[in-house]
Amino acid sequence: MSLNATPSGERIHIGIFGKRNAGKSSIINALTGQSLAIVSDIKGTTTDPVLKAMELLPLGPVVVIDTPGLDDDGELGSLRIQKAYQILNKTDIAVLVLDGTVGMTKEDDAILKKIKDKSIPCVIVMNKSDLLQSPPPNPQYTEGMPSGTATAGSAAAPPVIWVSAAKQANIRELRELIASLAPGEENRQQLVADLIHPSDLVVLVVPIDKAAPKGRLILPQQQTIRDILETGAVSVVTRNTELKETLASLSRKPSLVITDSQAFEQTAADVPDDIPLTSFSILFARYKGNLRTVVNGAKALDTLNDGDTVLISEGCTHHRQCGDIGTEKLPAWMQKHTGKELNYEFTSGTEFPSGLGKYRLIVHCGGCTLNEREMKYRLKCAEDAGVPITNYGTVIAYMKGILERSTSIFQL
Length: 412
Prior knowledge:
The protein is of the alpha/beta class.
């Protein structure tokens, strides 16, 4: 991946929802100006959520998600509808597509209620305006529901826009309306930029990770370097095996040292106490808005008993190799720290398990491939189940006795 490429976790996720044959795929193709989604008169053409990373002007880098129809039928249809609803957990902006010749139905109303319950910005698209006997209302989009349709039971109704995907009518206006719903950048937590200043020296400790493709840095390292560059600070990247020599060769003291979690213990020993130290995982825990939660979750490690089950979950999938941190190193370190005979379950990828009540602790990866909404959804699931949750770097720092030092630069 190029340092200039926008990772999926940093893109606005736009979920397209609606009944079969409402024109969801046609709207996606019209919005993007590409044939990204298969269009057919046959109901149920889209059987699984399809994610596509792309540029959508005037918004910029986005992930567009085409979902199965909300009125799918049969046993498989019910599973597809469930998948569509699950997409809400990662949706930053929801686009609810209705057949304008039919109006809102009970299926549309049901998902709109869920969208509003989750406080997701939404636009209602009345498609197929070209098939109406009378022209759509003027102005082309209004605050509130179309007359004669069901409401979602709220005064704060989303905007409604009439379009024709077939005739490309009001597609530009729809793009602009979607862009206006995007969350602002001004209140977003920064990754590392607020901890450093222009011309500061930042040392990154990067072991050569067998799980990373040859010739590439893993995503958290790439994003941190980019953030440092945009701040105007200077990054020095070294392996843990050369850290001591690197520090000794510098003409001035670094403002911050950031390490891979696996090298935390050795890095802490090599970095003088007067130099701030943290890890990529801890930075990402704060970036996703959950540092206090994962710090408290790490301390729950000492409450575990023999026979307790720990869930170790990753947001991405990768080829696991000998010495994998999630399936091998973490369980070994936790066993040694607690002295307890623990059970472990492992998940990876976009699916997060339901029924979390059987776990006594959840240890999650840094979540660099997940967008903020999905990471917060997973945290909320753990909170609702009453299960402590932490992440790799935070629990490693706790087990190595350096959690307080590695979080002292943050206000908790």
